[in-house]
Amino acid sequence: MPSRTKRLRGSRTHGRGKKAGRGAGLIGGHGNAGLLKHKRLRMLKYDRDHFGRRGFKRPQNMVRANSTINVGELEEGLPRLLEGGFARQEGDRYVVDLGGMGIDKLLGEGRVSVPMEVTVAESSAIAKAKIEAQGGSVVEE
């Protein structure tokens, strides 16, 4: 028996009418095509929130990320801090002002081997414990 395609050779539309055989003609378009036209009722019934905005966006003056530094980085950068005037040496102890540098929080990653007195807005409990274990102190302003 010959195939349907072979049988319909010479007919312009192969028995499908004018639009059914073109692309996504019979189903009304691809994807979300027609959601505001011929697929509107389907959209209103099954996906009412398809259009429009949801949620909220916080104002940029409210959003601010903390600037942080780890105790290991702090100890490695002591020579640079001394040059920049953000730290000074008093005997064997260093006095560091992180607030003047623009650092908001001191974190506890790394090792501390010298006593330091650090002034900062916030600090983690681990950072405080590591500095105090070496005979230093953390002053939170």
Here the CATH topology of the largest domain equals Ribosomal Protein L15, Chain: K, domain 2
Low-confidence stretches: none
| Proportion of residues in β-strands | 15-25%
Write the element-wise H/E pattern from the N-terminal end onward: HHEHHEEHEEEHE
Please indicate the count of domains.
Answer: 2
Rg from Cα: 35 Å
Set down the secondary structure blueprint:
Layout: H1 4-7, H2 40-46, E1 68-70, H3 71-76, H4 78-84, E2 87-90, E3 93-97, H5 98-101, E4 105-107, E5 116-120, E6 122-123, H6 125-133, E7 137-140
Parallel strand pairs: 1-4, 3-5, 4-6, 5-7
Antiparallel strand pairs: 2-3
Walk me through this protein's architecture:
It is a single chain. With 141 residues, this protein is of the alpha/beta class. The protein folds into two domains: 14-55, no CATH class; 68-140, Ribosomal Protein L15, Chain: K, domain 2. Helices cover 26% and strands 18% of the residues. Strands 2-3-5-7 form a four-stranded mixed beta sheet. Strands 1-4-6 form a three-stranded parallel beta sheet. A hairpin with a 2-residue loop joins strand 2 (87-90) and strand 3. The protein starts with a helix and ends with a strand.
Structural descriptors:
single chain, 7 strands, 26% helix, 141 residues, alpha/beta, Ribosomal Protein L15, Chain: K, domain 2, 2 domains
Brief digest:
With 141 residues, this protein is an alpha/beta fold.
